[in-house]
Amino acid sequence: MSWCPDTAKVKKKMLYSSSFDALKKSLVGVQKYIQATDLSEASQEAVEEKLRATDRQ
Q1: What pTM was computed for the model?
Q2: What class does CATH assign to 2-56?
Q3: Which helix (H) or strand (E) holds 46?
Q4: How is residue 6 annotated by DSSP?
């Protein structure tokens, strides 16, 4: 799961995004990634719903 708040400055969001991209490439075997921008999107219920939604695609 990646989490970057909406309130973060653009420069920090860009740095986070590029760092997370590099991390994803190094994590062989991880099939799903979830992004959250506030705590409600990082709740167990929200994560489970996002995982179910990606299974339907």
Answers
A1: 0.61
A2: alpha beta
A3: helix 44-56
A4: T
Domain ranges of the chain: 2-56
Phi, psi of 11 (to 5 degrees): -60, -40
CA-to-CA distance for 57 and 49, rounded, in angstroms?
13
Rounded to whole angstroms, the Cα distance separating 23 from 14 reads 14
Give pLDDT tens digits for 1-42: 888 888 899 999 999 889 988 998 898 888 888 888 888 999
Q: In this structure, are residues 2 and 42 in contact, taking their beta carbons and an 8 Å threshold?
A: no
Radius of gyration of the chain (CA): 13
Instruction: Spell out where the chain has E strands.
Output: 2-3, 35-36
Which letter does DSSP use for residue 20 in this model?
Answer: H
The length of the chain, given as a count of residues: 57
